[in-house]
Amino acid sequence: MSDFAGMEDLLQDFLTESSDLLSEVDNKLVELEKRPDDKHLLNDIFRGFHTIKGGAGFLNVDVMVGLCHRTENLFDKLRNGELALTPELMDTILAATGVVRDMFTSLTQGRTPQAASPELLANLDAHLQGKAPQQAAAPQPAAAPAAAAPAPQAATGSGPDWNGLYNALLDIEEEEDEPEVHATAVVQSHPAQPPVAIAEPMQSLAPAQTAKAPQPATQQLASSTQETTIRIDTNRLDQVLNLSGEIGLTKNRLTTLRADVMSGKMDTPTLKALDEAISQLDLLVSDLQNAVMKTRMQPIGRLFQKYPRLARDLARQLGKDVELVITGEETELDKTMIEDLNDPLVHLVRNAVDHGVETPAERIAAGKPAKAVVELSATQVGDHILIEITDDGRGMRPDVLRKKAIEKGVIDIETANSMDDKQSLHLVFLPGFSTKDQISNVSGRGVGMDVVKTNIQKLNGRIDIQSQAGEGSRFSISLPLTLAILPVLVVKTCDQPFAVPLAMVREIIPIRTDQVQEVSGRATIVVRDEILPVKSLAALIGWEETQIPQFGVLMQSAEHSFILAVDSFVGRDDVVIKPLQNIRPRGVAGATLSGDGSVVLVLDMEDLLSSSNADTSAVKTSRLVENAA
C-alpha cells in the first residue's frame, strides 16, 4: 500500500490500539442501551470515536474519518440532550461500528478501505437532522468467524496407522537434512509382534529436537491471519532478563567445575560444589520456564469483550431480550489458546441466545422475567481454567434429544435405549445433530456444536453439559493454563512408554484377576460400587499383549469413566509436546522427549477411544476374563 510507505509501524500501532478501543465502544454501546441517560457512558463513547477519527486522519484514511465524524456528531447531540436514543438509532450506530471494523480488516490485509454505503451515510445524516431514516433495515448479528475445521489427518480408518507413521518416519529420515520432531514416534513394524522402541533409529534426531523452540500443539489450528504480536508487562520481561543473567552466572560456575573434574580434581568439596551448582541451575531453569510462560498469558477479557455485541445483535434479530453477563475477565490464559477459543465460544454464545433462551412472551407465560440472562464466566481452578456459559432458558430434555437423534439417523433405537441422561445431553455434539426443525441463517444445519467439542479437545480440554428442563443449561469447558507444557502420566505397555494427559487421570489401581468380571463379553472392575469397563492400551493401539496388564489407570473423560489397563507406569512428568506435522495417526496428540532422551508418544485418549474398534477391544481385554476364570 503505497499510501502508507514508511508508516508501517504507525499503521500497526493504530490498528492494534483502535481495534481494542472499538471493541470497548461496542460493549459500552450495549450498556448504553440499558442506561440511555448515562452521561459517563456517552462521553466515553464520544471520546472513543474521536480518538479513532484522529488516528485515521493522521494516516489519511478519509473514508474512515468521514464515517467516524458523523457518528461522533450523533453522540455529541445525544450527550447534549438534542437527540434521544432509540432502538433504530442504536441499530444505525452499531452498523457504523461494523463498517469501521471492516475498514480495519482492509487495512490489515493491505487494501484501501471502501467507503461506507450511501444508505448508511444517509441514515446517519437523517438521525443528525432529527428525521427518521428512509431505510431502517433489521439489524444483522455481528459477524463471527466460522469455526476452524479439525486439523487434517493423514491416517484414515478405525484406528491409528502406526505402520504408516513408521514408514513416513523412514522417508523423512532419508529425505530431510534437518528432520523435525514430527518424524519421531514409537512404532512397530508388525502389529502381531511386540513393539520395538525407536530410540536407536531416532538418536540422531534428539539433538535437533531439543535445539528447537517448543511449538505448542495449537499451531495446527492456527490460521494464516492469526495475530503474531503480544503485549507483555515490562515487569515480566525484567524477571526473564534477571533469571537469564543468573543462569549465565551458574553456567560459568559449572564450566569452572567441569574443568576441575576433567583435570582429575574429584575431592569431596568439588563434587559438593558441582551438586549445588546443578541444583541451582535446575531451580533457575524452572523459574525461567514459569516466567516465560507468564509472558504468554493474557487476560481472557480481551476475548470476552467481543461477545456482548454479538449477543445483542442476535437477540434483537430473533425478537428476544437477552443480557450477557461477563465475570472473570481478568483470568489469564495462554494467548494461543485464547485465539483458538474464539470459535467455540462464539458457537456457545449464539447457541444460548438462539436455542437456550425463550422469547419474552414465552418467558412471561412460564413465570420468568421477560429478560433472559446468559452468563459467561472464567475462573482458575488449580492448573486449569474453567469457562462456563450458563443460561436461564428452556433447558434440554434428554428424551427429546434421543428422539431427535433417532429421527435424524444420528443413532439407532437400540443405542438410544442404552443411553442415560448425561450421555443423551452429549448428543448435541454429534455431527449432523440439531433440535431445529427449520433451517435458518442462524442455526438448524447440524454444524457447530460438533466443531466446538473437536476444537476444545484439540486444546487438551474437555466440555461438559448440565441442563434442567425449564430452568436452563450450563456448558462447562475445562482447559489447561498453557499448551506449551502438558502434565502427563507416563505408562508402559509391551515395554514401550506412552504419555496420557494427567487431567484425565483420577487414580492408579492394581488389577487383580479375582476383581475382573465379565459383563456382556467385556472385562469390567467394580470400583467403589461403580462398574467400569477395562480397556487395554495394547488393544486400543492394535498391538498383541505380551503379558497380562498389572495396573489400571482410572480415567475420566467428558462422557464416561473407564480403566486403562497397562503393564506398568513410569510416573508423572511435565512435557513439552511437539505436534506431528504432515502425518498424524488418530489417537496421537504429539511426541515428546523423556528425561533419558527417549521418544514418547502423547496419546489423545478421546480420539483413540472414538476411533478404536469395539470388537477388537473386547477380544483383547477378554484375556483378563479368561485368566480370572
Briefly, what is this?
The chain is of the alpha+beta class and 629 residues long. The chain has 20 helices and 18 strands.
Describe the protein's architecture and organization.
The protein has 629 residues and is an alpha+beta fold. The chain has 20 helices and 18 strands. A 6-stranded mixed beta sheet has the order 10-14-15-13-12-11. The chain has a 5-stranded mixed beta sheet with strand order 2-4-5-7-6, with helices on one face. The chain has helices spanning 8-34, 39-58, 62-79, 87-108, 118-128, 162-175, 206-211, 234-262, 268-295, 301-304, 307-318, 335-356, 360-365, 398-407, 413-417, 421-425, 449-458, 537-540, 605-611, 614-628; strands at 297-299, 322-327, 332-334, 372-381, 384-391, 462-468, 472-480, 486-493, 496-501, 505-510, 517-519, 522-527, 530-536, 551-556, 561-566, 568-575, 588-593, 599-603.
Mean pLDDT: 77
Largest sheet: 6 strands, mixed
* Number of domain modules: 4
Strand order of the biggest β-sheet: 10-14-15-13-12-11
- Strand element count: 18
Query: In percent, how helical is the residue content?
Result: 40-55%
Our Rg estimate from Cα atoms comes to 29 Å
Proportion of residues in extended strands: 15-25%
Low-confidence stretches: 145-200, 202-225, 613-622
* Number of DSSP helical runs: 20
CATH topology of the largest domain: Heat Shock Protein 90
CATH class of the largest domain: Alpha Beta
Second rung of CATH, namely the architecture of the largest domain: 2-Layer Sandwich
Which structural category fits the helices and strands? Answer: alpha+beta
CATH superfamily of the largest domain: Histidine kinase-like ATPase, C-terminal domain
General form: flat
EC number: 2.7.13.3
Protein name: histidine kinase
Modified residues (Phosphohistidine): 50
Domain HPt: 3-107
